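tool_call: predict_structure(chain=1)
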Amino acid sequence: MTAVLDIFRALADPTRLRILALLGDVELAIGEVAQVIGQSQPRVSRHVRILIEADLVERRKEGGWVFLKMADSDAARAYRVFVAKVEQSPEEQAVIAADHAALGEVHEERNAAARRYFADHAKEWDAIRSLYAPDGEIEKAMAKLLGSRPLGRLLDIGTGTGRMVELFAHQADIAVAFDRSSEMLRIARAKLVPSAQPVEFVQGDFNALPFESGAFDTAILHQVLHYSRNPQRVIAEVARVLTPGGIALFADFAPHMREDLRTGSAHARLGFAHEQMRAWLDEEGMQIESQSEIGGGELTVCLWLARRGAADGAGKGDGEAWNSKAHQKRHAA
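tool_result:
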């Protein structure tokens, strides 16, 4: 447990109090904090180290960036309660207001960078989108499948620009935007932060999801699976991180012959047949509840809604009893 003296020492500095006020309910890069505070990054890093040692802040590395957020700890929760009950002086209010105004400028810089990235890649994306039904039609079909049900803990795998989180986070208790690309996560963050719903951003590989078993109630993979050379391994990971009874919604192409998507757009698989998806999902202990197709272009988009079955000893709720034979065999070594 963090020593009480360490916590009070960490709080006994106006710069560190400004950092905590900035973080609030958002995650910021350490460079962004330095930009708002108006101090050098090495100096801010020293302050951050003290806050981390006091269990008030936690850090996360994403590519070459380091992101900060309030810690999920007793010390941080106690600090929030304390600050909410103490009236700030006019001088403190002015400093915090100025910091949040500067933070708004940082968010606008993020948005500008995202717009530049979209402009640079617009022709490539538009060329692919022209091959299938409009995004709005696909999103409407996905929303119909998910309905108005609570999504609980939502994982968006291959979040890209964060569109799925933008659409469905309001039905979730918390949403995690997951992507291999740190660049795409920065774009998603620019779009989704600040947000009315809590969103976490995590970088990693969909072949080895960095989450505990049974960590999520809902997973979405929108136009993601075709990038995998081993789709069943990805499906196995999806099944593993879902709680028993959890659902996964896959949106991807039906089989096609557009070899240029493999050579020019890194598509490892040229679509998926219903029978193949059903076999993979069944082997990983998931059953398809609904499948549909959306035409309207050269490529057909398929939707598969699947539910993870209850594991032996289900009721633990934490996924410890997950017993997919295929998953156990692959990971036995």
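agent: The domain at 4-105 is CATH 1.10.10.10 (Arc Repressor Mutant, subunit A). Proceeding to next step.
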